[in-house]
Amino acid sequence: MNLINSSEKRIKFLKKRGRSNIFSRFFIYLFKRKKKNEIIKKDKDDDLDYNLVYALSPKKVPNFRQLKYAKKVLRPREKNIVNFFLIIILVFLIIFGIRFYKKHLIIEPDFGGEYIEGLVGSPKNINPLYSTARDVDSDISRLVFSSLFTHDKNGNIVNDLVEEYSISDNGLEYNIRIKEGVKWHHGESLLVDDIIFTFLAIKNPEYGSPLRGTFSGVEISKIDDFSFKFVLSESYAGFLEFLTFGILPHNLWESVLPQNAFLNELNIKPIGSGPYKLKSLTKNKSGEIKDFVLVSNEEYYGQIPYISKITLKFFNNYNELLGAINNNQVDGISYLPHGLKSELISQNSLSFNKLNLPQITSLFINEKKNSVLEKKEFRQALAILIDRNRICNEVFSGNASPAYGPMLPSSPAYNGDLAKYDYDYELAKNFLDESGWNLLELSQKELLLIQDIIELENNKNKVEAESKSETEDQSENEVKIEDEAGENASGETLNFDFSNLENKMTELKNVENWEVKKSLVKNFFNTGENLLGAWRFKKSNISGKDFDFLIINLSTVDSVDNIIVLDFIKSAWDKIGIRTFTKTISSNQVQSEIIKNKDFEVLLLSQVVGSDQDVYAFWHSSQISEMGLNISGYKNKEVDKLLDEARLSMNSEDRIQKYKKFQELLNNDFPVIFLYYPTYNYIQSKKIKGFDFSVILNPADRFNNASNWYINVNRKIKFRD
């Protein structure tokens, strides 16, 4: 090794002395040759050692103990080959292991865990007789109570308590047998007596259930403890859809007087037979329930819930609710308004379940409250001023679709040939112009001028009234204004400058339509509305009134989405001069005050039309009553006849044709402006598994498969055949 190193040094030295020197080249050649011979000699020595060891070894294949010396024995090339094949083997083992793991790994839901959901509102009456009136009550009722039938993830009607049923050929009798072994949360058995009690309570007017009208002409009779039958006075193909109400335990309720049922403690501490039962509840100082804790019903007749505990937390508004989910205080929220999605912080950790609703959002028109609404052409003008596509795309980010009729596009009876009153500003403008509604624009400068004049006129009237008690020699342009004690608050004498009023009036008279604008400001200044912009007016035929102004009062339920849509419509109508005064109302007031008393002009509201195409409850004239759902008070004898015949017909094609004809008549009468079909945004943490619904008929349906939700999992390898 030293010789080799010295040779290299010698070669470098000779290179420095000059490459052209022939002697230098000769010595370089000799040294290189010598170095090469030495390396060859070393390799030969190694080969001799290798051959000697191999020849003396009794076994040609090394054992496991000898393998640890492989690195010392193997040549570099052999080491590389061995390493290469080891890597190949390792890669194949990893691939095989992954495939084996995926093929044979079984991930099963396991019991345990807690799910916390936030809701806006507070429970008042968790009783199937009344819970349909409020979403929060209906949500809890769905978890606590069982029903005869329920809906699956596609919105189809399926058995719940029912074991089997049959329908007579004439469609008037429904024979039903319920499941045996079903237990109430307090341990007793659920029998037919409980179903009969609940049904009769719904029909009893003393209980005041909003479901009462649904079962008019329907009777029930017991066959045995697990069998009974409904008898209808008239056949109705969609009758099973009505049998999704919760069942009450009659032994707990039979001693409660019907008139006192609404106030009973069982309404907030319910006992049912559903997948979850009440554990505890917490109230604030005002008596409002803030937390409602449910635990798994271990004796549930269906799938025992995987999640052991569900806690429902109640908030006053959506801002509080969003704060709760952003701060990880809840795992889900019952509903997310489309306009608030951007305020969610950790969106990657959440599942956004977009559920299709059999729901139509519309503008219901009450012609009796405003004479301008009586004209069908005017109602059509209101319709074509609303750009439905912009609402769907801009307000709901594409999570809604335009609606033009009273039925869902998925319904077999949907009439796709109806006239679509799409956005057409110019057509609406021409109609208003031709109808004699003149247009004016009120500017900021004009508004301030008129306000000054009105104030001066009020002061002048006050001065003139007080001047009657003053002496005649008092100056015409200077008067003393006093308060109730004969002086103003400061005790000083005020002067009124009549010339100032005259000058401002002269300025106003140079403004186009000044009389109209002055009347406008005088009539509406105290309403709190923004008076600037376009207005439509005409000469009034009413004695003592100079001008009529085109004004619509638009109301809606107080929710984020509704308010955004409300503002959108107001802007569209205001732009053309149809001044729109808006009002929001609480959900509690809608049925009890607004719909019941028909106390609205135009009402923005969503209606759940159900999975069946029957719309009798919404458009038949018999449903105009206080508790009915014919919100616009629509009457048409031919429509009534079609709806009566369609709901009685057991021939599906005949029903479809009648419903299509009904849609044509309704569309021609224009009692409502259909806007859009919304979707329902249900938000859950990704730790919650098992939610697989795509269609719900009402918000509470999201809990229909709550027994199948899970948080914990059990992983195991199973060798399959």
Keywords:
721 residues; alpha+beta; D-Maltodextrin-Binding Protein, domain 2; Dipeptide-binding Protein, domain 3; four-stranded antiparallel sheet; globular
How would the blueprint of this fold be written?
Blueprint: H1 2-17, H2 22-56, H3 70-73, H4 76-104, E1 105-110, E2 114-120, H5 135-144, E3 149-151, E4 157-159, E5 162-167, E6 173-178, H6 192-203, E7 218-224, E8 227-232, H7 250-253, E9 276-283, E10 289-296, E11 309-315, H8 318-326, E12 332-333, E13 350-356, E14 359-365, H9 376-384, H10 388-395, E15 400-402, H11 425-434, E16 438-442, H12 444-467, H13 498-508, H14 514-524, E17 533-539, E18 547-549, E19 551-557, H15 560-576, E20 579-585, H16 587-595, E21 602-608, H17 616-619, H18 637-648, H19 652-669, E22 672-685, E23 712-717
Parallel strand pairs: 2-11, 2-12, 19-20, 19-21
Antiparallel strand pairs: 1-23, 3-4, 5-6, 6-8, 7-8, 9-10, 10-11, 12-22, 13-22, 14-21, 14-22, 15-22, 16-17, 17-18
Helix pairs in contact: 1-2, 9-11, 12-13, 12-14, 18-19
